[in-house]
Amino acid sequence: MSSTARAIWDDALISYDFGPGHPLAPVRVELTMALARELGVLDKIEVVGCVPATDDELAMVHKRDYIEAVKRVSASGGPDLSAGLGTSDNPAFKGVHDASALIAGATLAAARAVWEGTAEHAVNIAGGLHHAMAGCASGFCVYNDPALAIAWLLAQGVGRIAYVDVDVHHGDGVQALFYDDPRVLTISLHESPRTLFPGTGFPGETGADGSAVNVALPAGCGDAGWLRAFEAIAPPLLREFRPDILVTQHGCDSHALDPLANLMLSVDGQRAAYAYLHRLAHETAGGRWIATGGGGYELVQVVPRAWTHLIAELSGHPLDPATQTPPAWRAFVRERTGETAPLTMTDGRNPEFRDLSGGYDPADPIDRAVMATRQAVFPLHGLDPMP
Questions:
Q1: Which domain holds residue 196?
Q2: I want to staple 24 with a disulfide (CB 3.0 to 4.6 A). Which of 140, 152, 240, 339 is the partner?
Q3: 138: which DSSP letter?
Q4: Domain annotation covers residue 87
């Protein structure tokens, strides 16, 4: 599947740094770009720079007084708990506004490229800060770059936008900002809010006539169950909604090795999800696809491989999962982290799954989660919730 694709990158994007010991370590993005470069992935995609989002652009989704509070924290490095900065999740640091605005600007650049037709697909792996709310930081996120891209596209006159979030955590910030806007369909597949932050994302959160869709998966869900749930929910809704543009968030913290969550996916299962979303972008949105990174806290074994697969998928030149990681990259990993890098681009899994055509099993917790979502949302879209 070929396309004109663009990756947005600036070395300054790694300045979004909450300090030593924080799970959202910028080295994960640095190692991803290094791996993609060493494997030749970046030779097959146009790589362009970006500029920070302006205050007026940020104000499309964030309150003005919040932006001013972030700028004050940025200048002083001191906390402002009313803005959500200075907590263990969101430590205050000097330069936080500039670093956050650059990430937002990178996702805006991706949106602009797709809207203007200079690229069919565009990706900002440093983005995906989906927890930030209109008036406060939350969950490691200061400015909500996917929401900003959506708001900007709506302002340009885009009629329908679908947002699919595959991060292990509920995409609460994006959902909240567009909860009552029928032009935006948000679909989030995540670990159940009963066991994971942010405690939202139940099937009954349906927005404006079904514009919010939440699949709350049980802890322990692996590749086959996750892909079964995805196939049962996202494709039918996207085919019915027919978005003008597809926006996706690719937190890879659904992996079994991630230290902050409890799903059990492999890099191979995540790669399969990226390929499925690529096909759906072409089938339902005319190929117009904007992708971001997101969560992911296994910094060496998971994030670089997962997001290198994502960039390769967007480029139209997906990597053979058996590909060896380059020796130069492994040496760089050792130098930067002291850890031993993975040897290949696969976890050795074959992510197969059964669809719902054979019916569902009410004793299976994954099938129960799927059916709870279908029953809550499908009738609002004129779809039959039963398989």
A1: 5-49+103-381
A2: 140
A3: B
A4: no
